[in-house]
Write a structure and sequence with these properties.
about 35% helix, binds S-adenosylmethionine, globular, seven-stranded mixed β-sheet, alpha/beta
Length: about 200
């Protein structure tokens, strides 16, 4: 099998689990697949106990509606949503690509950055939290946060010293200048000792 059909096979297997709403099997699959293969689908593959920790934190902070910016396929969001019962939608850029035949399957309701306008930004108060996983554009990050009325921002990404850079990094977040956010919850995610979840609260 060449690399492309390998990838299609993996995607098919994930889709079968998703159609059966079997999130535990998707997680097992992520743990078993070789790193180079699974990272094509998700930068952060959570363990079951990570999802339970997320559930407990969200419950404590009364977070039940999350908008994930730069969600990619939305697979992490689908897993969180299935395991915790909270509602998560995603935002991506480049709608033409995501709607094209080259795009990988997406797993959550998606909106597109190009179509976001004042009306949409008005709706952002519906979301309790914005989530950024392996996001890579600090300016866009600040713009999203600036237009957000809710109380929580969740940053998921690599810990310091792992040779990977995202913007924001979980523990080095450059928020809009006039706003103050402090972290209220943080924990490791995945089995690679590489990634962290940090939840920030507006002060
Ligand atoms: C490194 S990928 C991470 C994807 C996914 N969150 C994950 O963890 O697997 C960063 C994603 O952010 C998206 N992105 C970058 N700038 C964006 C913007 N201004 N608005 C929405 N999405 C953006 C990219 O298209 C890309 O899919």
């Amino acid at each position: 099998m060449d690399q492309k059909s390998d990838g299609l096979q993996v995607e098919r297997e994930i889709n079968v689990c998703i159609a059966a709403k079997d999130w535990k099997k998707v997680i097992d699959f992520g743990q078993e697949a070789p790193f180079e293969e699974r990272v094509k689908f998700l930068w952060v593959w959570p363990l079951q106990e990570d999802l339970e920790r997320i559930r407990i934190c969200f419950e404590r902070l009364a977070i039940s509606r999350v908008l994930s910016i730069g969600c990619g396929t939305g697979l992490l969001e689908w897993l969180i949503s299935r395991a915790t019962g909270i509602h998560i939608a995603g935002v991506e850029k480049d709608e033409n690509w995501w709607r094209s035949k080259h795009a990988t399957t997406t797993y959550i309701p998606m909106q597109f950055a190009e179509a976001l306008n004042d009306a949409h930004q008005g709706q952002q108060q519906r979301w309790h939290a914005l989530m950024f996983c392996y996001f890579n554009d600090g300016c866009a990050f600040r713009e999203y946060v600036q237009n957000f009325n809710g109380c929580y921002v969740i940053v998921i990404g690599p810990r310091d010293g792992k040779g990977i850079h995202t913007d924001p990094m979980p523990f080095h977040v450059n928020f809009p200048a006039e706003q103050r956010w402090d972290w209220v919850c943080q924990f490791r995610i995945g089995n690679e000792n590489r990634n962290h979840v940090v939840i920030y609260q507006r002060q």
